[in-house]
Input
Amino acid sequence: MKGDIIFKNYTDSDYEALCNFLIALNENDDSHINWNWARLEWMIEHPEFDKSLKNSIGLWIADNKIVGAAIYDMYFGEGFCGVLPEHKDLYPAVVEYACKELKDDSGFGLAVCDENTDEAETVKSLGFAISDQDETIMEKILDDDFKTELPGGLKFFSPDPVDDAYDIQWLFWQGFDHGGDKAEFEREEEIVPRVRKHFNRDLGVAAVNEKGEMVACSLLWYMAGTDYAYVEPVCTIPAYRGKGVATAVIYEALSRAKKLGANRAYVISDMEFYEKLGFRKKHHYTFFWKNDNR
Output
């Protein structure tokens, strides 16, 4: 017998419950793994995430636990709608809420796993149309003995997101191709330490050169009680690309996660680079868009 459903808007006190909802959603069926607790934790402290909007996240509660959620992605206009399997009849209401409360001037879009035909039919019945945007999740089974040798002169380092905030952001600035002008970086970037509740520093692996500079990094997310790790993000500064550095830091992070209990890892990507590391395409997601402003 299902309990009564109560709607509420998100507050910071709901964070742990929202993580638990995303864990439960992916516990027996990983077709929603493109939205998992680790993606939420990475996003909610990302510099581009608009925290002023977070109380607009919609939560549906039954028996004192979250059974449905509508979450925006960084800004309004795109997001995620999900419900636990036993509350699948709630899905249309969650999507309708997102269309109304999480849209921008262009409407609202969400990704639906191609295998979830019932969800696809629901969003189409609500006026969504398929767009040319898509997303792929790749999976690697962690049954390897990882070889993590770095090129000469480099060593592994686990950066602290608070103490090493400047160095991490400078690495990401270079690694995501914003250039190598440190003066420009300091003008454009606000250095903000990122405190993420469940982040395990030991699973964030960087490569450091002889000067103590981080030249590559892979952050990995794993929570005890789950059986998977999530890769986000990975970057290497241009001068160190093509040398096997990214492979080494990813493998070192995966090796550490495996020792903690992870038996698989996911990454949102369809890059050949990850295929060479043993990742295989697991789920494909089609984006649906609805313009409610017409």
Remarks:
- The chain has a mean pLDDT of 95.
- DSSP finds eight helices and twelve strands in the chain.
- The helical segments are 15-25, 37-44, 91-101, 117-125, 165-175, 182-188, 245-260, 272-276.
